[in-house]
Amino acid sequence: MGINKKRIGIVAVILVVCAGLGSAGYLFFNMYEENGLLGNEIDSLEQSLGITKTYLENTRRDNTSLTELLGNERGTNEILSKNLEDQFSKNVALESQVVSISGMVQDISGTVGTLQKLSQTDKELLKKYSKVYFLSENYIPSRLVFLERTYLLDASVPKQIHAGLEPFLQDMMRSASSTGIDLKIASAYRSFDEQMSVKTGYKMLYGSGANQFSADQGYSEHQLGTTLDFTTPKLKILSTQFDKDAAYAWLLENAYRFGFVLSYPKGNSYYQYEPWHWRFVGVGLATKLHGEGKYFYDLTQREIDNYLISIFDR
Ligand SMILES: [Zn+2]
User: Fold this and answer.
1) Distance of CA 263 from the midpoint of ligand 1 (Å)
2) Measured between alpha carbons, how far is residue 123 from residues 117, 139, 236, 266 in Å?
């Protein structure tokens, strides 16, 4: 019994060992096989990786050359835009040169125009006439026109004025009558000879005092054709009573807007007070005088001369 039990035990141990070895071998075999499959997979993955790497490298190379191209392109663009900028600033410089040249041309032609206009403007029209400066007996305004008869105190005797102030006078007469002021013109242009006979006539009437009353021929503003004596149909004569009339107040207030000024105000040192005697000096100068409360004879001839060129400007 003892020996059998031992044998059985040994056989059992051998069997157990064999079974163990067998299953280990099986396991080992299985693992081996699996490893082989894994190895294959790894191989193919490695291959794919290789392909991807190559692809990536190619792509990177492409990118690099593209970047290079882009860089070159950018460089070219920079050069181009620099050129463009240069061209642009050249154009700007040229443009400003053109502008300044045309400005100069304009200035020159403006100056020429001004000089031409000045040379064509009658210098006598803004001269102060006094006992020391008088008009030539041959002086006649460049162009005279007849006054509208409705403006005249005595419509039967035609009167003339310098053509240049005609539109200003028309505007003033219209403006006055539109506000109910009935201005009439008693005298306008007078030639040297007419002035002389007027003076003679006054002399006969008033004696030697006529010199004060009517300017001696040669320095009457009437010879210029730009001077008018106003009255009203009610007053009918040239009288200092005119300054009591609404017409005189209207002239004081408005005549400057049409270029007319009172030549001989009360207390002046040139002639006796003549509220009826108004001279055209242009809107610019008349406006200045009105604004500053001055009279034509208060200014120096030099100051006055600045307004000559624009005397007939509206
Ligand atoms: Zn007068």
Assistant:
1) 9
2) 11, 12, 34, 27
CA of 278 to the centre of ligand 1 (A): 7
Q: Which fold has domain 123-305?
A: Muramoyl-pentapeptide Carboxypeptidase; domain 2 (3.30.1380)
Nearest residue to 268 (alpha-carbon basis) of 128, 75, 113 = 128
- The C-alpha atoms of residue 172 and residue 158 are separated, in whole angstroms, by 19
**Spans of all domains in the chain:** 1-120, 123-305
Determine the distance separating the centroid of ligand 1 and the alpha carbon of 276, expressed in angstroms. Answer: 7
For the segment 97-134, what is each residue's pLDDT rounded down to a tens digit? 878 878 887 888 888 888 888 888 899 999 988 766 77
- pTM for the model stands at 0.64
Q: Note the Cα 235 to chain centre separation in Å.
A: 50
Distance 179 CA to ligand 1 centre (A): 24
- What's at 157, amino acid-wise? V
Q: Give the torsion through C-alpha atoms of 55, 60, 64, 69, to 10 deg.
A: 50
Going from the Cα of 13 to the center of ligand 1, the distance in angstroms, rounded, reads 166
Q: What is the pLDDT of residues 181-233, one digit of tens each?
A: 999 999 999 998 887 777 666 555 555 444 444 555 555 899 999 999 999 99
Which percentage of the chain shows pLDDT scores above 90?
46
| Termini Cα distance of the chain | 159
